[in-house]
């Protein structure tokens, strides 16, 4: 289930630390800070046809889960990886590389749907295994990933503790790439706490190291992250400079999903500056990429952001269509918090149309919304 250039020093993370995936409102900034596990653990050979068939079945299940993950359908991917893991533990054993990969993937999926306790349980299991095998480099990776689980729960003290443990091991074993990633993640904690100078300090250290080791994927992630820190400081000129570097590099390395994330971020800067036409232009580019890579969550987010730019210009018809599409995708995934944000946005636009005084137009839009969403008109509009 792992792919080659994924941020969780792990398998299937799609966004980068500090990157805005859910920006402005359909959610909070999405911070993925995981590192992928690359070591091959001791494995036993397979000689029986039945065993080979089971192994192939597990690989198929993992591949199906990857496709669901890319579409933002995390809850649907989980039982597939659970099945794959059960097969691999039985046929291959706990220490086989395929089993380890599925454990890591399942932990990330649990983390993605806020099942943090289960995610940590699996990561602690992996940590114990790597310590038993004396695999210090992978121990550092898993410590980093546990830190990310704590960060997502808002437990920043614990997150920093695990990140610092990871950093210490990375330096001991000379894992410069891992050191750069974890420095970036520490910066992410400070970013989340609103300590942007510290965030920039750590992300700049990370950028220097990642450039030294030639990790262009994480270099692009960190460029985006530095842009985000400037973004939230209100330093839009510097934010755009780093975002543009990130977009260029992500385009060069073929990271279409990451390129879309950063194009969305650029759109947000222009939105905040009141340049809605330029914001919409970047959102359109981001939307195209999100659809190309089947990133349903990203698609819904960009649709919402675009709707906000239309609404701020008074283009309520276009805003309503975008918010409705965003709502339907968030409902289908599902992401309930973002779905509710999109629903509130729909009601806000309908209310703005009502305040313009044209009752027939208001009623028409209310009916269209009810039809598009399959939700009773009375849930959207007052007095109807």
What does this structure look like?
By secondary structure, the chain is an all-alpha fold. It has helices spanning 49-70, 74-91, 97-112, 116-133, 136-152, 156-173, 176-192, 196-213, 216-233, 236-252, 256-272, 276-292, 296-312, 316-332, 336-355, 359-373. The longest helix is centred in the N-terminal third of the chain and has 22 residues, at 49-70.
Looking at this protein, list some descriptive labels:
384 residues, 16 helices, 0% strand, mainly alpha
* Cα-based radius of gyration, to the nearest Å: 22 Å
SS strand fraction: under 5%
Oligomer: single chain
Mean pLDDT: 87
Structural class determined from secondary elements: mainly alpha
Largest sheet: none
Uncertain segments of ≥5 residues (pLDDT<50)? Answer: 1-32, 38-48
Shape: globular
Write the layout of secondary structure elements.
Blueprint (H helix, E strand, L loop, with lengths): L48 H22 L3 H18 L5 H16 L3 H18 L2 H17 L3 H18 L2 H17 L3 H18 L2 H18 L2 H17 L3 H17 L3 H17 L3 H17 L3 H17 L3 H20 L3 H15 L11
Helix pairs in contact: 1-2, 2-3, 3-4, 4-5, 5-6, 5-7, 6-7, 7-8, 7-9, 8-9, 9-10, 9-11, 10-11, 11-12, 11-13, 12-13, 13-14, 14-15, 14-16, 15-16
């Amino acid at each position: 289930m792992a792919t080659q250039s994924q941020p969780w020093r792990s398998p299937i993370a799609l966004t980068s630390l500090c990157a805005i995936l859910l920006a402005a409102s359909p959610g909070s900034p999405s911070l993925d800070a995981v590192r992928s596990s690359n070591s091959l653990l001791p494995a036993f050979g397979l000689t029986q046809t039945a065993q080979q068939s089971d192994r192939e079945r597990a690989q198929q299940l993992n591949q199906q889960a990857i496709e669901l993950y890319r579409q933002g359908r995390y809850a649907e991917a989980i039982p597939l990886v659970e099945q794959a893991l059960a097969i691999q533990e039985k046929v291959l054993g706990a220490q086989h590389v395929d089993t380890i990969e599925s454990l890591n993937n399942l932990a990330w999926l649990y983390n993605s749907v806020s099942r943090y306790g289960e995610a940590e349980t699996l990561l602690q299991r992996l940590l114990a295994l790597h310590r038993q095998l004396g695999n210090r480099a992978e121990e550092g990776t898993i410590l980093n990933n546990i830190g990310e689980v704590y960060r997502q729960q808002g437990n920043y003290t614990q997150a920093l503790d695990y990140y610092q443990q990871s950093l210490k091991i990375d330096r001991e074993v000379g894992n410069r790439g891992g050191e750069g990633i974890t420095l970036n993640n520490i910066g992410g904690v400070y970013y989340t706490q609103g300590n942007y100078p510290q965030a920039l300090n750590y992300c700049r250290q990370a950028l220097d190291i990642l450039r030294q080791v030639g990790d262009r994927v994480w270099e692009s992630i960190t460029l985006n992250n530095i842009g985000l820190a400037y973004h939230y400081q209100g330093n839009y000129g510097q934010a755009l400079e780093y975002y543009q570097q990130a977009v260029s590099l992500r385009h060069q390395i073929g990271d279409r999903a990451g390129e879309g994330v950063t194009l969305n971020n650029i759109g947000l800067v222009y939105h905040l500056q009141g340049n809605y036409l330029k914001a919409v232009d970047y959102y359109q580019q981001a939307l195209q990429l999100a659809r190309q890579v089947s990133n349903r969550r990203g698609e819904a987010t960009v649709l919402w952001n675009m709707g906000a730019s239309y609404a701020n210009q008074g283009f309520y018809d276009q805003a309503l269509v975008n918010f409705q599409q965003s709502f339907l995708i968030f409902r289908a995934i599902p992401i309930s918090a973002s779905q509710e944000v999109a629903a509130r946005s729909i009601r806000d636009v309908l209310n703005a149309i009502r305040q313009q005084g044209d009752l027939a137009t208001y009623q028409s839009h209310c009916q269209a919304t009810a039809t598009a969403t399959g939700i009773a008109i009375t849930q959207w509009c007052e007095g109807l």
